[in-house]
């Protein structure tokens, strides 16, 4: 289930260079959040129409001067647990190092597909040197140059050849994933919701070891809870908490419609939480943020919820139109509300806005505040429609889409949100180019 590709290897072989190349093209086209400064170690890539998740395992330890063998090995082990395909990178200019050897030893033990990419093969002369890496016994050595793109097409062909066909879900129930870093209260929440029922109505979906969907049909709810935390064996986590948190959430997020992202009120909204939020956003899933352990917060003055909410919104910007609920699984405070909100988000995410209504409302807004002229050119947005995608996406037809700047796009996004209530739902807007010739007269 799922197509999650993890890039592993020692530092400086070119993992992040390749990662950026893989996600770049797609982000430039469809991602409204690109350009926002964030840690980018997780992204979605696409090749011959197949979309997949890529994770740069090295990205999470960047900046630390010494990366120890032990640390790399832990990352490789986690990648082996959580990813579907392992992309092992080595560097032709250095040849085999001890660290490479260590990683290769771990990878030889897995049943998962391991693809060996020998990087920095920038020219034909270096190709002979790449042959050295056959001695790992990990199959073909794919010669690539992450910096100039050489060989990456063949590499991508090899990656997608290992993808599993997507299995259509047999039912239409909303799937709600409970995600968050370790110890925020995910298991407690799931137990509070499911109670005793959990042991009775569980059915394993997809493959054996991973996500477990539990059908929940009580108190007017009919949905599936996608569980990551509770059921999987808990390992002791001391370090690499960011990498661990993200890696363990990806599959559940991909498998869900709406994610309940739990954060710990004692710790506040941290970088690890943001990283998971980012994965949810990248996958365009609905989201509800729970600030859990609210019972532990002392001095709840009248302003405290606003302060917290403002702080979280500042951190998750620009996608801030997100419900934030203050819960305690201990006292059961607002647990029902959390679930109710997740279902509302699901409904909004699947609602289609009629084209006539969309145009009526939005064209009026555009008339009131038109896009500013640029270089003396008059910019006209003529028409818009919702695209037939899983998550809300809107196409705006305009004579000079390249002249519409980011602030104006945000203005439109905010108007869409205020008129059509998309709270908790990531959306994206497309600006198709007008027909190259002859079509201009339309505008
Ligand atoms: P990481 O630590 O594995 O993520 O490695 P980086 O992507 O940060 O790359 C390490 C260094 O190798 C940087 O200076 C890159 O510019 C360089 N590099 C990456 N890919 C290539 C390549 O294909 N050819 C050459 N010559 N240099 C590369
Ligand atoms: P998980 O790792 O995210 O599944 O977290 P757990 O559900 O195992 O909870 C971690 C710890 O936090 C446990 O000791 C829980 O009892 C505690 N905990 C969870 N939710 C709450 C809460 O709302 N209030 C308080 N005070 N403790 C909580």
Summary tags:
7-stranded mixed beta sheet, binds guanosine-5'-diphosphate, globular, 16 strands, alpha/beta, disordered C terminus, 34% helix, 443 residues, 6-stranded mixed beta sheet
Give a structural overview.
The protein is of the alpha/beta class and 443 residues long. The protein is built from 13 helices and 16 strands. Strands 8-9-10-7-11-12-13 form a seven-stranded mixed sheet, sandwiched between helices. Strands 2-3-1-4-5-6 form a six-stranded mixed sheet, sandwiched between helices. The longest helix is centred in the first third of the chain and has 16 residues. It is globular. The C terminus is likely disordered.
Taking pLDDT < 50 over at least 5 consecutive residues as the criterion, the unreliable ranges are: 28-37, 199-211, 229-234, 438-443
Q: Compute the gyration radius: what is it?
A: 24 Å
How would you characterize the largest beta sheet?
7 strands, mixed
| List of distinct ligands in this structure | guanosine-5'-diphosphate
Termini, distance in Å?
Answer: 46 Å
Estimated share of beta-strand residues: 15-25%
| Tertiary shape | globular
Q: Helicity level, as a percent range?
A: 25-40%
Total beta strand runs: 16
Write the H/E string, N to C: EHEEHEHEHEHEHHEEEHEHEHEHHEEHE
Q: Which oligomerization state do the chains in this entry correspond to?
A: single chain
Sheet/helix structural class: alpha/beta
Strand numbers in spatial order across the main sheet: 8-9-10-7-11-12-13
The number of helical elements comes to 13
Overall pLDDT confidence = 85
């Amino acid at each position: 289930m799922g197509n999650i590709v993890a890039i592993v290897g020692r530092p400086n072989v070119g993992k992040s260079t390749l990662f950026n190349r893989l996600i770049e093209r797609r982000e430039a086209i469809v991602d409204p959040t690109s350009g926002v400064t964030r840690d980018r170690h997780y992204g979605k890539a696409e090749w011959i129409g197949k979309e997949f998740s890529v994770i740069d395992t090295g990205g999470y330890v960047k900046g630390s001067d010494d990366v120890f063998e032990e640390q790399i090995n832990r990352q490789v082990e986690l990648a082996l647990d959580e990813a579907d395909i392992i992309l092992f990178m080595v560097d032709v200019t250095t040849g085999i190092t001890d660290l490479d050897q260590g990683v290769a030893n771990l990878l030889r033990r897995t049943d998962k597909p391991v693809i060996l990419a020998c990087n920095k093969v920038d020219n034909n002369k270096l190709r002979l040197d790449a042959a050295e890496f056959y001695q790992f016994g990990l199959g073909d050595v794919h010669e690539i140059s992450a910096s100039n793109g050489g060989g990456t097409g063949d590499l991508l062909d090899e990656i997608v050849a290992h993808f599993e066909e997507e299995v259509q879900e047999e039912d239409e129930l909303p799937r709600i994933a409970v995600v968050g870093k370790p110890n925020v209260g995910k298991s407690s929440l799931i137990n509070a919701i499911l109670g005793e029922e959990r042991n009775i109505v569980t059915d394993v979906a997809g493959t054996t070891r991973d996500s477990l969907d539990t059908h929940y049909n009580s108190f007017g709810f009919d949905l599936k809870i996608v569980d990551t935390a509770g059921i999987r064996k808990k390992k002791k986590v001391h370090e690499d908490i960011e990498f661990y948190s993200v890696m363990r959430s990806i599959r559940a997020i991909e498998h869900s419609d709406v994610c309940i992202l739990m954060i710990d009120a004692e710790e506040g909204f941290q970088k690890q939480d943001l990283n998971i939020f980012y994965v949810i956003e990248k996958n365009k899933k609905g989201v509800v943020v729970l600030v859990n352990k609210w019972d532990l917060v002392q001095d709840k003055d009248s302003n405290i919820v606003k302060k917290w909410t403002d702080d979280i919104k500042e951190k998750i910007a620009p996608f801030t139109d997100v419900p934030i609920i203050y819960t305690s699984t201990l006292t059961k405070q607002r647990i029902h509300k959390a679930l109710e909100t997740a279902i509302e988000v699901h409904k909004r995410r699947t609602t289609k806005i009629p084209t006539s209504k969309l145009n009526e409302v939005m064209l009026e807004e555009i008339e009131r505040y038109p896009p500013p002229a640029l270089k003396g050119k008059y910019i006209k947005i003529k028409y818009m429609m919702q695209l037939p995608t899983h998550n809300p996406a809107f196409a705006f037809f305009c004579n000079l889409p390249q002249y519409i700047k980011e602030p104006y796009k945000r203005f439109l996004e905010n108007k869409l949100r205020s008129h059509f209530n998309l709270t908790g739902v990531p959306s994206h807007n497309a600006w198709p180019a007008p027909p190259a010739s002859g079509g201009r007269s339309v505008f």
